[in-house]
Amino acid sequence: MSNSTVGLRLGEETRHRLEALGKVRERTPHYLMKMAVERFLDVEEALEAERRLVKDCWKKYELTGESIRHTDARAWADKLDVGAEFP
Question: Could you list the residue range(s) of the whole structural domain that residue 52 is in?
């Protein structure tokens, strides 16, 4: 995989904060920015996957009308707390 350079305009305060944190962590501002972008993408991609799942579940519900009663879902969730096995 090849790397490419991307320009990023930062305010002076943000740049100073990056430099200060980099010194404390013995890392370059570039490294910190790269890690921040990767963490951001991990979180946002997980959120997007969850949104797709919810959207797909809703579409299935609209087509089939299948659902789970709240009391059944709650009973299942309560079993998770005590570590009980369930089907």
Answer: 12-82
Helix pair angle (29-64, 12-25), 10° resolution: 100
Q: Quick check: is 7 in a domain?
A: no
Confidence of residue 85 (pLDDT cuts 50, 70, 90): low
Give domain status of residue 64, yes or no: yes
Specify if 1 maps to a domain: no
Residue 22 burial (C-beta neighbours within 10 Å; 0-12, 13-18, 19+): middle
Looking at residue 84, the DSSP 8-state letter turns out to be -
pLDDT tens profile 20-78: 999 999 999 999 999 999 999 999 999 999 999 999 999 999 999 988 889 999 988 88
Number of domains making up the chain:
1
